[in-house]
């Protein structure tokens, strides 16, 4: 699809869609932008329900040609804006089902969803939909947190900090590579859990020191791969608008450059935990929009 022509209509004008792309109709499209505005499973600062609209607003400056990957992603993917999945505030179980069905509907048409969260709990129903269509998938998970805690508040199993453990328990995942981890943890035992769960996990120090090695591990994965990016993997100096910020993270350049190097087969992609109310400068939303743009560019090279 083509963006609204900026030579005729300024970039601050017109209704907000992702990158000023058309709203999806029944055309032959390979990738869509879709919002999942749900933040009831967040454990600290809320506001990620405003992520999709914030990211659309922050995407207005994206242009059609990506010179670093030599591609026109929107045109190649025939990408459009699918609108939002209607999450129900206050009703986690119902919302999980609605997300799973909504994403399944998209991927059953062989479209790759680029999903704007929402808090990180939304990734669990997305992965359930992926499993239904593709079987077990690989997961690349960028985050400052492990997200494999068992429960919160005593016995609550479904939160934005437990989705990864649930996904592993439910047998949704093949290989898991997570990177960027740096948050303090509840106990040293959390590090033991990492070994027990059998995932490849890299701290921010490892990510900074051996980025090429981590990329080559990711690029050697076989089969379908889902990419889930918690914006808090980026330093709050670059991405302050998020629910559980952790200092000492990636720069915006580092994450963009990381994504450009991915060669794994992408079947879905999310950017979650963008909470625009905590960021009056729109930096976080603009970064999230650019991360999606780079992910779409990488996918466009795989066609
Ligand atoms: Mn996180």
TrEMBL record:
Pfam families tied to this protein: Arginase
Keyword Hydrolase part of the UniProt annotation: yes
Binding residues for Mn(2+) 2: 232
Manner of cofactor binding, per the entry note: Binds 2 manganese ions per subunit.
Cofactor(s) needed for function: Mn(2+)
Family membership: Belongs to the arginase family. Agmatinase subfamily.
Annotated organism of origin: Acidianus manzaensis
Binding-site residues for Mn(2+) 1, renumbered to this chain: 120, 143, 145, 147, 230
Xref: InterPro entries: Agmatinase-rel, Ureohydrolase, Ureohydrolase_dom_sf, Ureohydrolase_Mn_BS
Name of the protein: Agmatinase
GO biological-process terms attached to the record: putrescine biosynthetic process from arginine, via agmatine
PANTHER family hit by this protein: ARGINASE/AGMATINASE, GUANIDINO ACID HYDROLASE, MITOCHONDRIAL
Superkingdom of the organism of origin: Archaea
Keywords from the named record: Hydrolase, Manganese, Metal-binding
């Amino acid at each position: 699809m083509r963006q609204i022509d900026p030579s005729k209509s300024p970039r601050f004008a017109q209704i907000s869609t992702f990158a000023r792309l058309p709203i999806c109709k029944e055309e032959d499209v390979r990738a869509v932008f879709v919002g999942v505005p749900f933040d009831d499973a967040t454990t600290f600062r809320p506001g990620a329900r405003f992520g999709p609209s914030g990211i659309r607003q922050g995407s207005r400056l994206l242009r059609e040609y990506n010179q670093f990957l030599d591609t026109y992603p929107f045109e190649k993917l025939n990408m459009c804006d699918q609108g939002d999945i209607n999450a129900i505030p206050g009703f986690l179980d119902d919302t999980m089902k609605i997300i799973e069905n909504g994403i399944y509907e998209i991927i059953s048409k062989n479209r790759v969803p680029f999903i704007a969260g929402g808090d990180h709990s939304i990734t669990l129903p997305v992965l359930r939909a992926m499993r239904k269509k593709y079987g077990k998938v690989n997961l690349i998970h960028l985050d400052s947190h492990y997200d494999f805690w068992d429960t919160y508040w005593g016995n609550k199993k479904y939160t934005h900090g437990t989705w990864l453990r649930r996904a592993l328990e439910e047998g949704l995942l093949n290989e898991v590579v997570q990177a960027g981890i740096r948050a303090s943890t509840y106990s040293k035992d959390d590090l033991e859990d990492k070994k027990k769960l059998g995932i490849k996990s890299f701290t921010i120090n490892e990510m900074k020191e051996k980025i090429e090695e981590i990329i080559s591990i990711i690029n050697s994965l076989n089969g379908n791969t889902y990419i889930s990016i918690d914006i808090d993997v980026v330093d709050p100096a670059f991405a302050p608008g998020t629910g559980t910020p952790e200092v000492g993270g990636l720069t915006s350049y580092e994450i963009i450059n990381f994504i450009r190097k991915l060669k794994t087969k992408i079947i879905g992609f999310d950017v979650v935990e963008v909470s625009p109310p905590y960021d009056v400068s729109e930096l976080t939303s603009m970064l999230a929009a650019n991360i999606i743009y780079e992910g779409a560019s990488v996918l466009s090279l795989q066609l």
